[in-house]
Amino acid sequence: MSHSGEDGSSPGDQGAPERNDPVRLRAINDRAVAATQHFRGESREGATFEVMCECPALDCLDMVELGSDEFDAARRRPDMYVVTPGHVNPPLHGVAEEHDGYWIATGPKAVTDGHR
Predict the structure, then answer these.
(1) Which of 31, 44, 93, 103 is the most exposed place for a label (fewest CB within 10 A)?
(2) Residues near 29 by Cβ (< 8 Å), separated by ≥ 6?
(3) pLDDT per position in the chain (116 positions), as tens?
């Protein structure tokens, strides 16, 4: 027996996010890059990293490959996010830069260790 609401949703659907949180994805990517760097034990200079697209689409599973300099440049402001080209939601985000293989989107500011 189905217990769907008037809108067709089931009880388990309540509170489900409508989109991903780019701030959360950015934090996950930052931790993944730091861990990768730690375990590689090599200089960060010239290294490449594969990070998740930080767009708000719930079904996006895209990965973006960046060099360390590119990744650092994408982190110079707390409201910048790495996305696959075209993965921008104009009411919420803008495009700051377009590069081959990735774009830098702007959106809500990430909180970074108390520094702004």
Answers:
(1) 31
(2) 51, 52, 54, 82
(3) 333 344 444 444 455 556 688 889 999 999 999 998 888 776 677 789 999 999 988 899 999 999 999 999 999 999 999 999 999 877 777 899 999 999 999 986 654 333 22
- Reference 78, options 5, 35, 23; nearest CA is 23
Question: Could you tell me the pTM of the whole model?
Answer: 0.72
Residue 83 φ/ψ, nearest 5 degrees:
-135, 155
Neighbours of 17 (CB within 10 A): 9
Distance CA 45, CA 18 (A): 38
SS3 assignment, position 82: strand
- Domain borders along the chain are 18-106
